[in-house]
């Protein structure tokens, strides 16, 4: 996850950060990544045990939207207090969310736990970039960034499978509670070196305070849209109108002009990222439930599918890197368009298999194609976006890339959850949910056509 404000000002970084800091930082990233990758696998069992299918979409949307705001808050705390304080607060909030979610006796309490988790996870997701900038010398930063990226790889590959095995052997509650003692062991390794190391220079300005309002407004507005989609009463129309207006208004402060009309260059690249995330990650939010309810797969079998997705996304990223090395920046728009077309094809095959129109193996084949294409197109699009700005603006761009992804995935999860809650039979609900995500994938063609080598 990225952040939406600049990194805190800092004094000259230490010649060599303590090894315990690197170990603690990577352990924290591993824990957050595992939780993020694992929850989707066990959500069908959570919804069944707590009789909360109507709030299924909120279990993902609440986490995502609160993480957006949590990233901004953690940046403000780091800027005005210290990195150690920011890390400590985020760790405590994340642990509290794990405890609430694991002990939930109703789906509403579970969603509340997910919301609290998101506040902490947003801060922890932004932490590595701030720590690496403030505490590591220039020559060591690339190595640490690579290590952080690798720390996300392992949970993406095995997190869903491990979570399903834990849920089958014990309980889905163990997936949440089991992370708390691990977090308690990792936290001192991360926080203590930050407390004992050189203090960051205090920012003389307002830091990220000016972004707190827009970030909170965006999260609340998107939440109103999600709830409006879910509700069957007259209040739904009011929530949709207020939420949609709020998203449009707050987006002006957090994203470049022309985002929603796919203006050439950076706005089109951000819009494409949002639509691609809406399509693939939105489908990922309800895919395990659909496979469980429609095709009779166990959580472990569904976990295998999500692990396949993590592996093939990584493979696609590697393929993209090789193509970038051989063909250069001029080929990025073509790679992006091919990647988006692959997502459409892969999602269509996945949907047909999940709904029972084609053999079950086609679900795995379709998901392989979709995630491989995502790795190629998504990363090529990120490089295109980076090339559209000056190097000193990369920090702001990372926040914009993260926030458009969070916003669109939260809305997609909300749409899917609303259809599952309101449409019967479930087969029809899942067909409509796939249709919505497929529409998002098809719409990526519009911003993709506004990406040209000249803009990159």
From TrEMBL:
InterPro entries in the record: MFS, MFS_dom, MFS_trans_sf
UniProt keyword annotation of Lipid metabolism present: no
UniProt domain Major facilitator superfamily (MFS) profile: residue ranges: 21-456
Topology within the bilayer: Multi-pass membrane protein
UniProt keyword terms in alphabetical order: Membrane, Transmembrane, Transmembrane helix
Cell compartments where the protein resides: Membrane
GO terms for cellular component: plasma membrane
Organism superkingdom: Bacteria
GO molecular function annotation: transmembrane transporter activity
Residues annotated as transmembrane: 21-43, 55-77, 89-112, 118-137, 144-163, 175-195, 207-226, 232-249, 270-290, 302-319, 340-358, 364-389, 401-423, 429-449
Protein name: Arabinose efflux permease
